[in-house]
Amino acid sequence: MRNQDMHPNASFQTLHIMTINVHKGFNFFNRRHILPELRDAVNTLSTDMVFLQEVIGEHKEHAMRYHDWPGVTQYEYLADSMWPDFAYGRNAVYPEGDHGNALLSRFPILRYENRDISIRGTEERGLLHCILDIPGQAEVHAICVHLGLRQTHRLEQLALLCDLLDTIPSSEPVIVAGDFNDWRLQANKVLVECNMHEAFALHYGQSAKSFPARWPFLRLDRIYVRNVSVRNAEALYRRPWSHLSDHVPLIAEICL
């Protein structure tokens, strides 16, 4: 049931969000399929929006190999009955299937677009831009991001993200979250020019360590915001999260 169904006239001031690279439903080093455990863990948080990276739409070989492989897409399986609206941006396509970014939402997604930001045909990447209808609020923009592994590619992709941000009315709330692969810590410098601010850097002086999940020392995952404030930004380092992906999930309260 959607929040707005429970409170049809309510005005929502705070959104609880989460971002996680789900590593295609496998744990560190791909040793074990853990999607059912990941769904159980995500459900315990009762967040309003979940930004997913490396989520599989289809994989024919895995479907035959693993007895607990879901009969629907991974993002539908994770959405379950908790998030009635979802959007998927297919980025990588291969003979066995495809994977990309997804957004799960308690609120209606009015429309969405997946922008291809792959650079010269390597490492298929995308920006999934969703516009949400949240009671009592202007249109809220949520952009799920997964950038490339090469520094030169990331800088080009950040420029493409800024191009997208420039198309959004300057007064409307924007949340950008995902796996930036930004181990050289350049994204904050670029995105501040678009008036975007990173949640953890605002409160703790630096972005959260998020990779690898069991011994995190690289600051790869981020939550950027514009025209909102942030409370209680937290990286989920403890079990079960440290054993459910190779990335640490990030959560935060977004105050509209």
Domain count: 1
Order of strands across the main sheet: 3-4-2-1-12-11
CATH fold naming:
Deoxyribonuclease I, Chain A
**Count of runs of 4 or more consecutive helical residues:** 7
**Kindly state the mean pLDDT as a whole number?**
90
- Counting DSSP E segments of at least 2 residues, the number of strands comes to 12
> How helix-rich are the residues, as a percent range?
10-25%
Uncertain stretches:
1-9
Which H/E pattern describes the elements?
Answer: HEHEHHEEEEEHEHEHEEE
By CATH, the architecture is named 4-Layer Sandwich
CA radius of gyration is 17 Å
The structural class is: alpha+beta
Per CATH, the class reads Alpha Beta
CATH superfamily: Endonuclease/exonuclease/phosphatase
What would you call the quaternary organization?
single chain
Main sheet attributes: strand count, strand direction, barrel closure:
6 strands, mixed
Per the principal axes of the C-alpha atoms, what is the gross shape?
globular
Q: What is the terminal-to-terminal distance?
A: 22 Å
Overview of this protein structure:
20% of the residues lie in helices and 34% in strands. It has 256 residues and is an alpha+beta fold. It has one domain: 4-Layer Sandwich (Deoxyribonuclease I, Chain A), CATH 3.60.10.10. GO terms for molecular function: catalytic activity. Residues 18-247 form the Endonuclease/exonuclease/phosphatase domain.
